[in-house]
Design a protein that fits this description.
The protein has about 180 residues and is of the alpha/beta class. The protein has 7 helices and 5 strands, in the order βαβααβαβααβα. About 45% of the residues lie in helices and about 15% in strands.
Length: about 180
């Protein structure tokens, strides 16, 4: 006989190279080690498979976030801890995802990985800041395209002031506090 696990969506929003994905995978490993069912819905992978063909206009970004939110809620409603490291630059898009979760009675936490753009551009994990500076791309979130930081997230992580392990521990503590881990 299996025990029913409470699922939840944990949305990690922040600028490119803020540390969202790194923190999500660190937390996923910890949760799996404790026997939780976990999925990471990485924004880059989602764009390649689920949202192929979408661009980076406000409308396309909203559609992308909506699709990810739908899949996350579906998984979470079925007992999976879903970690979503996705920029989701617009507050209204994130709010729509939160509302969908609330309507379905599914746990949802918003985590702002609040790393300053200067730190993100130094990290430049994917070379996006360098390409933007060289004029090769435009519409980079937080540089020449807007990023609406959450006003009251469930947790704010300053990844430039703590290690990945400390960030994952803070997020795990939040899950425990909310009765989700």
């Amino acid at each position: 006989m299996s025990v029913t696990e409470t699922g939840a969506t944990v949305w990690l929003t922040g600028l490119p190279s803020a540390g969202k994905t790194t923190i999500a995978y660190e937390l996923a490993g910890r949760l799996r080690a404790d026997g939780h069912r976990v999925e990471v819905l990485d924004g880059d992978e989602i764009r390649e498979f689920l949202s192929a063909g979408l661009g980076f206009s406000r409308e396309d970004r909203h559609t992308n976030v909506g699709r990810i939110g739908f899949v996350a809620e579906l998984l979470a409603a079925n007992g999976v801890k879903v970690l979503v490291p996705v920029i989701a630059p617009y507050a209204d898009s994130r709010d729509a995802v939160r509302k969908r979760h609330q309507q379905e009675g599914t746990a949802y936490l918003e985590v702002h990985v609040a790393t300053p753009v200067e730190v993100c551009s130094e990290r430049d994990v994917k070379g996006l800041y360098a390409k933007q500076a060289a004029g090769e791309i435009s519409g980079l979130t937080g540089v020449d395209d807007p990023y609406e930081a959450p006003e009251s997230p469930d947790l704010r992580i300053e990844s430039h002031r703590q290690t990945v392990q400390q960030s994952a521990a803070a997020l795990r503590a939040l899950l425990t506090e909310k009765g989700l881990a």
